[in-house]
Specification:
Helix content is 19%, strand content 34%. By secondary structure, the chain is an alpha+beta fold. The chain has two domains: 1-307, Probable tRNA modification gtpase trme, domain 1 (Gyrase A, domain 2, 2-Layer Sandwich), CATH 3.30.1360.120; 310-383, Aminomethyltransferase beta-barrel domains (Elongation Factor Tu (Ef-tu), domain 3). The strands form four sheets. An eleven-stranded mixed β-sheet has the order 9-5-8-7-6-11-12-13-10-4-16. Strands 17-20-19-18-21-22 form a six-stranded antiparallel barrel. A three-stranded mixed β-sheet has the order 1-3-2. Strand 12 and strand 13 form a beta hairpin. The chain is globular, with a radius of gyration of 21 Å.
């Protein structure tokens, strides 16, 4: 398995390591006594919701696309318009450059991956992709570049860099001890900073539903940077920021209604079914300077026919037992959907699930249940996503 530059740090902090998409990553921690002890998925979850958590997300892929035709290539690759994004080097309104959430689609409009796109300069973009899809996407990017004869370079810097996230309502209090500029960033804005000998790209983004930042920095200095950060995050006897693993990252994103590739997003499910319409510009083919994105024609045709039959929604279950991905959603004895993710929500104290349900059922006051197996069923209620929403800074 691959290891991130923070592997030793995880071991020292009591991380329980598991294989995740070919990377050895912490699923949860047994926190050492010097930061208060405790740990585990639920305690880490509450730590992020009430104070702050530190995540190593270095397993995520980081791919630079730059050159004369970089903008046209990225427009072709992703579902969201990028030509009007403000670069970090620009003088436009607001602080910092812009980042945008988007999909990389296949020809049928299914999702190859969901990505974050950063515009570093007029002809220089950074795409952050999921670990499980990095190799697949690198091949795809090169094929699209060659087919369109785009003059651009594609550089995978995943193993040369690290990526970390600090999330929670007190995250910005910690960041403000090191920078006065970063806390002024709006959501989905980023800056490139030099701190001592460390060059950072810091964005106001995250995957927990809380405020916070994600930072990309050279692999050879990340351990030093994290020691400095965590050393400065103490608040009396209580640490404001504590390590958090992939286990609570999953329960946090479910509460926030955020999709996970392989569960809510797949190559077989059309991107427009996900409920993230803001990430899809179906009119990109009308842009004078733009390039239509792969999958755009198929998605426009689907919308012309009335859109996808099933769309993503939330379900709240009675009792304490949780559903599982793949369980059928029923109305009477008829299948009307399928569960994609589920957990016992640590914040809400009740089981929640995300599911694709027939669009016609959402407005029909349907009485639904989830089939556990045999004759056993869970009663459930349609619940708009997200299940949980924290107060957030303004969006750029």
């Amino acid at each position: 398995m691959l290891r991130t530059p923070l592997h030793d740090h995880h071991i020292k902090q009591g991380g329980k390591m598991v294989d995740f998409a070919g990377w050895e990553m912490p699923i949860m921690y047994k926190w050492p006594d010097e930061i208060g002890g405790g740990g585990g998925i639920h305690q880490e979850h509450h730590q992020v919701r009430t104070s702050g958590g530190f995540f190593d997300v270095s397993h995520m892929g980081r791919v630079h696309i730059k050159g004369r035709h970089a903008r046209r290539l990225v427009e072709r690759l992703v579902s969201r318009r990028v030509s009007d994004m403000q670069p970090a080097s620009g003088d436009g309104p607001g602080v910092g450059g812009q980042a945008r959430y988007a999909f990389v689609c296949n020809e049928q409009g299914g999702v190859r991956d969901d990505v974050l796109v950063y515009r570093l300069d007029e002809d220089h973009f950074l795409l952050v992709v999921n670990a499980s899809n990095r190799e697949k996407l690198l091949t795809h990017f090169e094929e699209v570049r060659a087919a369109g004869e785009f003059k651009a370079t594609i550089d995978d810097v995943t193993k040369k860099t690290a990526m970390v996230a600090i999330q929670g309502p007190k995250a910005m209090d910690v960041i403000s001890r090191f920078s006065k500029e970063i806390p002024t960033l709006k959501k989905f804005r980023f800056v490139e900073k030099n701190y001592l000998i460390i060059k950072l790209l810091v964005s106001r983004t995250g995957y927990t539903g809380e405020d916070g930042v994600e930072a990309i920095l050279p692999a050879n200095v990340v351990d030093m940077a994290m020691k400095m950060l965590l050393k400065g995050s103490g608040d009396g006897d209580t640490e404001v920021v504590k390590p958090a693993g992939l286990g609570c990252r999953d329960t946090l994103r479910m509460e926030a209604g955020m999709p996970l590739y392989g569960n809510e997003l797949t190559e077989e499910i059309p991107a427009t079914a996900s409920g993230f319409g803001f990430a899809i510009n179906l009119d990109k083919n009308d842009d004078e300077r733009g390039e239509d994105f792969i999958g755009g024609p198929a998605l426009r045709e689907l919308e012309a026919r009335g859109g996808p039959e099933r769309v993503l929604t939330g379900l709240t279950l009675d009792g304490k037992r949780t559903a599982r991905a793949g369980m059928r959603v029923l109305e009477g004895d008829a299948e009307v959907g399928v569960v994609t993710s589920a957990c016992l929500s640590p914040t809400l104290g009740k089981p929640i699930a995300m599911a694709y349900v027939q669009k016609a059922r959402l407005d029909a006051g349907a009485t639904l249940c989830i089939e556990k197996g045999g004759d056993e069923r869970f009663d459930c209620a349609l619940t708009p996503l997200p299940f949980y929403k924290a107060s957030k800074p303004a969006t750029a």
